[in-house]
Write a structure and sequence with these properties.
By secondary structure, the chain is mainly alpha-helical. It contains twelve helices and five strands. The chain folds into two domains: 2-182 and 297-325, Rossmann fold (3-Layer(aba) Sandwich), CATH 3.40.50.620; 201-292, Tyrosyl-Transfer RNA Synthetase (Orthogonal Bundle). Helix 3 runs parallel beside helix 12, helix 8 runs antiparallel to helix 11 (268-294) and helix 9 (239-252) crosses helix 10. The protein binds adenosine-5'-diphosphate and sodium ion. L-tryptophan binds at residue 132.
Length: 328
């Protein structure tokens, strides 16, 4: 089993990113050969500030290390340092069809009405994603709902390439759906995803928030006047309450039912401080490790360089085989 997954090096990582993505990576590195990359090439599909991209890349690497990614277990690198990603992407552009990319809902959503003004990269983004995983013969790719269509596309591209050139080169990657990955909602609106793009900072807990900020945001989080019920089913039409219980369960590493067993009949005046204590207990050590790691940015950059060395070695035979299959 070989897992490949990437995340864009944007700043401002939050609790949703941690519980919904990063923590699954930390678990996965113990179960499978794992390659995790910072998708700095993907970041180029929208307007970027070069200085910010460079510092976000190092900060994101520090964050992943602080959350528990172990570079002796997983290969951690940034995409730009492994040129084979861009090279294979170009080779696969001859295989991917315009019609396939036109059907991608993320392209439609992100380009909106301004297709003429969107970058070409925004359109071909899923081809680079296909290259990212096919390059390493990934057997499994962790995907949320929003990425399932892109993984299907990667499989279609791999299938067509193998057929067109009469080779059995690319492994078809399967989705890896982690049962433990919760979807965390905004603290201000229980029906919107917790997101870095939400203009309200009170809507999310950043991984670098102080203990006081964490406690204050949770104290002010939208909830309701009711008591916590005994069963998860009774939270169905109480999105804000359900979100806070989901966060508690995820941080505690238990299920919603176990949390309700503990808190049934209690109100949010009791629950929120307990949640704040729990959140601070998990997040404060991560924050401290991020700060310590960023004291020596060169050392963090070195971890990425080492990872890129290993990734280049793994990528080389597949890129060469693809070139040979195409007569290059
Ligand atoms: P954002 O929505 O803040 O822009 P990204 O789209 O950059 O976050 O997502 C990075 C990773 O974090 C993805 O794997 C995504 O599925 C996960 N993620 C983002 N927001 C949440 C959330 N609110 N709950 C669970 N997982 C999330
Ligand atoms: Na996003």
């Amino acid at each position: 089993m070989r897992v490949v997954s990437g995340i864009q090096p944007t700043g401002n990582l939050h609790l949703g990113n941690y519980l919904g993505a990063i923590r699954q990576w930390v678990d996965m590195q113990h179960q499978a050969e794992s390659l995790f990359f910072l998708a700095d090439l993907h970041a180029l599909t929208v307007a970027i500030d070069p200085k910010e991209l460079a510092s976000n890349t190092v900060e994101m690497a520090a964050t992943l290390l602080a959350c528990g990614i172990d570079p002796t277990k997983a290969i951690l690198f940034n995409q730009a340092r492994v040129p084979a990603h861009a090279e294979l992407c170009w080779l696969l552009q001859g295989t991917a069809r315009m019609g396939w990319l036109n059907r991608m809902t993320q392209w439609k959503d992100k380009a909106g009405k301004n297709r003429e003004g969107a970058s070409v990269g925004l359109f071909t983004y899923p081809v680079l994603q296909a290259a990212d995983v096919l390059l390493y013969q990934a057997t499994h790719v962790p995907v949320g709902d929003d990425q399932k269509q892109h993984l299907e596309l990667a499989r279609d591209i791999a299938t067509k390439f193998n057929q067109d050139f009469g080779v059995e080169l690319f492994t078809l990657p399967d989705p890896f759906i982690s049962a433990a990955a919760p979807r965390i909602m905004s603290l201000r609106d229980g029906t919107a995803k917790m997101s870095k793009s939400d203009p309200s900072e009170a809507s999310r807990i950043a991984l670098v928030d102080s203990d006081d900020a964490i406690a204050q945001k949770l104290r002010k989080a939208k909830s309701d006047a009711g008591e916590l019920p005994a069963t998860a089913a009774e939270l169905a039409d109480r999105p804000e309450a359900r979100n806070l219980v989901t966060i508690y369960a995820a941080l505690a590493g238990t299920g919603v039912d176990a949390v309700l067993t503990e808190f049934a009949g209690k109100g949010f005046g009791t629950f929120k401080p307990a949640l704040a204590d729990l959140a601070i207990g998990v997040l404060a050590p991560i924050r401290e490790r991020i700060v310590n790691l960023l004291d020596d940015r060169t050392a963090v950059a070195k971890v990425l360089e080492d990872g890129a060395d290993r990734a280049r070695t793994l990528a080389a035979p597949t890129l060469l085989a693809a070139q040979q299959a195409m007569g290059l």
